[in-house]
């Protein structure tokens, strides 16, 4: 190495040592979206994960999305606010945040996983670089076997609404979970009436900009929980689902028409090495810090 280079290197090292934040600011910001029944800022969930990421990546900017004006509204909106409206609200927040101008990584928990995918598909600016879906349901759910957290009374009610008519306009408009309810026995009803999921999954038509925008991700990481007792079918966390027409046999993403016809660009992404399928032992959203640091952190550096 020529002496000048050596000197510059030494100088840089010295500066970096004097200011620990220097050099670490290259870490992309992280945007998180919480799951059903949760909020942006619950110290036991999103708050704890935000803190963990900030410890792991000193100087990183972490934005945990709040949908609404208060934490209570944010939780309530996770059940009752039209998902398309929620996605627009998120896009607006991201576009207005000067710290995200250069791009960001995103990590969605449970339904936040599919909502952030919609953000990637609909709102290319600022650019999302890596999307991590932690237990997200990319082909929706057909059943709510168990609800996480302390929201079981709401869950019982939601289950009744979904079973009695998830695709009725009134239910679609006002119940978040109905918008990713996917009834494999009634694929036509799903295709025509699902206001959110059927749209982002290109069931009615192929929106070329969804395809292009999703493919501009560097990585799309999907985490599945092997003992998940909340999501039915759990295959949805890896973009699989029940085979059309019945509710017992499942198919993988790669076996689906969505992939074979490459309506969303996922086959092209897999070919380009952009899809990552991770499995975690444990129930829905249950992971250890060791697992997080070993498996997910590398995608956030
Ligand atoms: C780097 O990050 C630290 C910690 O968040 C912050 O105090 C500092 O202003 C940042 N520096 C730059 C150049 O953005
Ligand atoms: C495709 O999606 C974009 C982004 O949401 C939207 O603006 C556009 O209207 C859609 N195109 C069609 C043909 O629906």
UniProtKB/TrEMBL annotation:
SUPFAM superfamilies: alpha/beta-Hydrolases (SSF53474)
Cleavable signal peptide: 1-23
GO aspect biological process, one term: receptor-mediated endocytosis
Gene3D superfamilies, sorted: alpha/beta hydrolase
A Pfam family reported for this protein in Swiss-Prot or TrEMBL: Palm_thioest
Entry EC no(s): 3.1.2.2, 3.1.2.22
GO molecular function, one term: palmitoyl-(protein) hydrolase activity
Domain of life: Eukaryota
Record localization: Endoplasmic reticulum; Golgi apparatus; Lysosome; Secreted
A GO cellular component entry from the record: Golgi apparatus
Keyword terms: Disulfide bond, Endoplasmic reticulum, Glycoprotein, Golgi apparatus, Hydrolase, Lysosome, Secreted, Signal
UniProt xrefs under InterPro entries: AB_hydrolase_fold (IPR029058), Palm_thioest (IPR002472)
Catalytic activity: hexadecanoyl-CoA + H2O = hexadecanoate + CoA + H(+); S-hexadecanoyl-N-acetylcysteine methyl ester + H2O = N-acetylcysteine methyl ester + hexadecanoate + H(+); S-hexadecanoyl-L-cysteinyl-[protein] + H2O = L-cysteinyl-[protein] + hexadecanoate + H(+); S-hexadecanoyl-N-acetylcysteamine + H2O = N-acetylcysteamine + hexadecanoate + H(+)
Stated family: Belongs to the palmitoyl-protein thioesterase family.
Name this polypeptide is given: Palmitoyl-protein thioesterase 1
């Amino acid at each position: 190495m020529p002496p000048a280079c050596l000197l510059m290197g030494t100088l840089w090292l010295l500066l970096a040592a004097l200011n620990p934040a220097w050099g670490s600011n290259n870490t992309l910001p992280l945007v998180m979206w919480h799951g059903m029944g949760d909020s942006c800022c619950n110290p036991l969930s999103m708050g704890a994960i935000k803190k963990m990421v900030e410890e792991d990546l000193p100087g990183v900017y972490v934005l945990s999305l709040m949908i609404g004006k208060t934490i209570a509204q944010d939780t309530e909106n996770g059940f009752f606010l039209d998902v398309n409206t929620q996605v627009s609200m998120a896009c607006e927040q991201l576009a207005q945040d000067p710290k995200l101008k250069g791009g960001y990584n995103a990590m969605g928990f449970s339904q936040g996983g599919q909502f952030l995918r919609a953000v990637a598909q609909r709102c290319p600016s600022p650019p999302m670089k890596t999307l991590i879906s932690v237990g997200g349901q990319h082909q929706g759910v057909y059943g709510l076997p168990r609800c996480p957290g302390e929201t079981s009374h709401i869950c019982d009610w939601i289950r009744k609404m979904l079973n009695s008519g998830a695709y009725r306009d009134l239910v679609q408009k006002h119940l978040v979970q109905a918008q990713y309810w996917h009834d494999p026995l009634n694929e036509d009803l799903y295709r025509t009436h699902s206001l959110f999921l059927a749209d982002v999954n290109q069931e009615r038509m192929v929106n070329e900009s969804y395809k292009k925008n999703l493919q501009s991700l560097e990585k799309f990481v999907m985490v599945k929980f092997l003992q998940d007792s909340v999501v039915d079918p759990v295959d949805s966390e890896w973009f699989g689902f029940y085979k059309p027409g019945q509710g017992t046999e499942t198919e993988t993403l790669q076996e689906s028409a969505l992939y074979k016809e490459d309506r969303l660009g996922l086959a092209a992404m897999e070919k380009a090495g952009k899809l990552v399928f991770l499995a975690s032992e444990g129930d829905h959203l249950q992971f250890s810090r060791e697992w997080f640091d070993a498996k997910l952190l590398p995608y956030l550096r």
